[in-house]
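G.,

No rush on this.
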Amino acid sequence: MRITLILSVLFLLGAILTLEVYRFFPDYKSAFEADQQCHYEALSLFEVEGTLECDHDLETRQWILFSAGKNNEKATVFKRFRY
């Protein structure tokens, strides 16, 4: 009974650790690839979502696809492209 509980807890901790480590791997190998994908999706989604923009965030090493807010509303982030 205790061994089953210990093994279950260890399995869950291993699964959580694996997911957390995977989360920090970048999706793209360079800023250029992330930039190209962001602008491609901005043009692809233009008809559906309206005006979309891409912005480069140097601190977090990602391109951000967003729709600028109107009348001083905050922007809506659609996707992040980490590199």
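When you get to it, here's the other one too:
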Amino acid sequence: MTFDESVDRPALSLSSLEVSIAADLVSSPLVVYGNWPRNSDAWDEDGDDGDWDSLDRPPVEGLYFETDEWENTGKYGDLGRLTFDRLHAIRVIREEGLPYPYSPQPGCWVYVVNESPWLAEHHRRVMDRYGRSLLETSQHYVFRFHDEYVEAIAEGIWLDRVRRDAPFTEPLWHPQTPFGLDLPAERFVSASGIDCELRRSPRPDSDLVRDAQYCSQRVFQVNVLDGCSYELASIWIRNLDGVLRSHVIFSSAPGVVVARVEGFAQPSDFAEHWERELAELAECSRQPGK
């Protein structure tokens, strides 16, 4: 396959994304992706599964990396972990340097590709097959290391630290974790007569807005009270390309955005959507045998 060099192509560029954990750029990361049967005979021929053997579920997908702690202290401490929000594609290239023009900055290792053809390609496929736009929700990330770089298309990223002797455990806390019942709630009755609870993130608005540049942040959660309390809908904020937007998702369709508005929305901005859902629940409960 040859390329016509006379054809003008858009000049790609990278924007750096400042993150809270600095990676050791000399060490290679461990990329974890996908699931496999836990009781498989193909784990390890010598029977030594190491950390994998202690898992009761597949490890959390993401990048596991050495931090710059060795450079600063001379000791190896915890590992860094970068996880994805709705990962669509990932690839690893063993090559020194990046194929995109960028301005190197000390310690910077996370970038976003502007006007990405790879993202546009995936957007077209997803739009044709599922009718969903990736351009409104996802970004093309590049993670730079010494002799390789990792690229991913995802709706967001999140970083935390994990113990070196147990790196594959679930995060102790994540901005997308459902709110627990121990969080104070405001009780209300829907227009269709269903008892509900509304909870709000205990985190300050400033922290939610700051972290929305990395991935969607759960701000409000509506629960239905029907013998027990279960989640019906949630309101999120996300900052993409410098624009803060809010969206609502129903737990019956995870990841499917029902409505979106600009700015930091309040529950009243999406009330009509969950009132409609609650009305359908109320109608269903009145039917014989329901």
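The helical segments are 69-73, 117-130, 205-211, 271-286. The first helix runs from residue 69 to 73.

Enjoy the weekend,
O.
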